[in-house]
Amino acid sequence: MVRIVSSLNEDPAGLVSVREVADQLGVHPETIRRLIHDGRLDAVRVGRVLRVHRAALDRFLARQRVKPTRFQA
Hints:
Blueprint lengths: L1 E3 L10 E3 H8 L3 H9 L5 E4 L2 E5 H10 L10
Helix pairs in contact: 1-2
């Protein structure tokens, strides 16, 4: 899901580019675009480019956490 918002309502300092998110996570930018278009990562469209709120990225990463497993000997 891509949300379209007015630039008056958004804080530009809290937005990061798809490439910056990809670099931070160590994946290809197309992977981030796919996550956005699949609705797994919230983003906004500013003009013709996609931007991700830092808080949305934090929520996405929190959902990706793996619970520790118990090893049986």
